[in-house]
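Below is how a single chain appears once it has passed through the pipeline. First comes the sequence as given, then the structure the pipeline wrote out for it. We keep one example in the README because the format questions we get most often are answered faster by looking than by reading.
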Amino acid sequence: MTKIAIIGCKRVQDQLCIACAKCLKAISLKDGEFARYDDDLELVALGNCGDCPGLIMPKLTLMKEIATMLDRDFDVIHLGTCVVKASKTGKCPLDFDLIKNLVKQNFDKELVIGTHNY
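Resulting structure:
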C-alpha cells in the first residue's frame, strides 16, 4: 500500500476548491497522477503549502514530524493540481525542481507534481 500526502495551495483550498473533493476523487479512482500506482492508496496527510512566498518546507517538516509521531508516515508527497495551476496563472513562487530536490534531500521522499486533471 502506498501512503500519500498532499500539499495544496493555501489560497485555493476551501476557497475555490471546496473540501479537496477533486483530489479525493482522483485517489479513489486512481485517476490523474495517482494512476501511476499499482497497489492500494491511502491518504495519510493533507495540508497546504503555508502560503506565499513559499513556506512549503517548514510545513512539510511539521507534517513529517506529526506523521512520524502518529506512526502514519507517508511514502510519496503530491503537490496538488491547485498548486500547479497557481504557478501557471497566479504567479505562485514555488520552483518545482528546487522543491523536488529539497524533499528528496530532507525527507528521502518522492515529490509528484500534480494530482488530477479536473
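Helices lie at 21-29, 56-69, 81-89, 96-107.

See the next section for the split statistics.
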